[in-house]
Amino acid sequence: MKVLQKLPLSPFPPHPVLTIGNFDGQHVGHRALVTSVVELARRRKGTPMVLTFDPHPATVLNPGLPLQFLSSPEQKREFFQGLGIEILIFLEFTHQLASLTPTQFVDLILRDGIGVRDVMVGKSFAFGKGRSGQVQDLIQLGSGANFDVHPILPIRVDDQIVSSTRIRRCIQDGKVVDAARYLGRYYSLGGRVIRGEGRGSELGWPTANLSIPADRVVPPDGVYVTTTVIKGEVLKSVSYIGRRPTFAEGVRMLEVHLLDMNRSLYDEELKVNFIERLRGDKKFSTIAELVRQMEFDANSARERLQSLIEDPAKNQLRVGS
């Protein structure tokens, strides 16, 4: 897959089939849309393409607004490449780009910049200055710019329209099971293991400590059933998000305990998949009470993970995904 950042393309690729969007989270609706692009390009003997924006438009249009995302640019690349996209365009989003009218966007970006022949978008797609262009406008403008527009119906899960906004709300409410159904995979956070205070090891529960990424949506404080991916290896784990209120409260962190394994993970890159929330955070009156609860949490996580492995009907997603 080619990753490009400039327009116009020269030369234009064979029969570009394009979709456009931010694709935060890469949920099941995004997957259906991108899969449709790849299939149509195959039928047209063309080139499946994605146009997305970097930075996210909201960071340019609302610079003081703290934004948290469901995924990183690297995860977007992996998603598109895995589905068969051949050209991914990360177009720089600027005030100048935001000021383009729908007609200017079609003429300058889609027609003259990409030479697009087919465009596939969701029915709620909006474009141009102030999101003033709708799908019907795109269809009309496309007829004069030599491309066809194919609106795609939204995907529903549990009779709910799948959207990044809905998924974000689920994660912020701790409903990671629901979020996974909308995503088609478990929500994950990752990073490099940093040194902690070593308190977990002293208590017999060593943890790998990860900083909470400021730009990512994070589940609420508490304890979670998780799996942890290390260099492609998927391991059972139980994880905690919080400030450790039983002790003097500190920096909010993600702490991961590998089940039935004692292994040094310092400076390793981890990905933590959130499978289910066990409980909220709590301040314990004694260290002994905390340790008993940790033992109970670990057993609960172990049983839950084992049940998903033994009974695939209970597990709509792969534990190791």
Write structural notes for this entry.
The chain is α/β, with parallel strands linked by helices and 321 residues long. It has 2 domains: 2-154, 3-Layer(aba) Sandwich (Rossmann fold), CATH 3.40.50; 186-314, Riboflavin kinase-like (Elongation Factor Tu (Ef-tu), domain 3, Beta Barrel). Helix content is 33%, strand content 26%. It is built from 10 helices and 14 strands. The protein has helices at residues 28-44, 57-61, 73-83, 95-98, 102-114, 135-144, 164-172, 176-183, 199-202, 287-310; strands spanning 2-4, 16-20, 47-54, 87-92, 118-122, 148-152, 156-157, 160-161, 187-192, 208-211, 222-230, 233-242, 253-258, 269-280.
Short description:
This protein is an alpha/beta fold and 321 residues long. Helices cover 33% and strands 26% of the residues.
| Largest β-sheet summary | 6 strands, parallel
CATH class of the largest domain: Alpha Beta
Number of domains: 2
Q: What is the CATH architecture term of the largest domain?
A: 3-Layer(aba) Sandwich
Derived from helix and strand composition plus strand pairing, the structural class reads: alpha/beta
CATH fold label of the largest domain? Rossmann fold
Question: Beta-strand level of the residues, as a percent range?
Answer: 25-35%
Helicity, as a percent range: 25-40%
**Global mean pLDDT:** 92
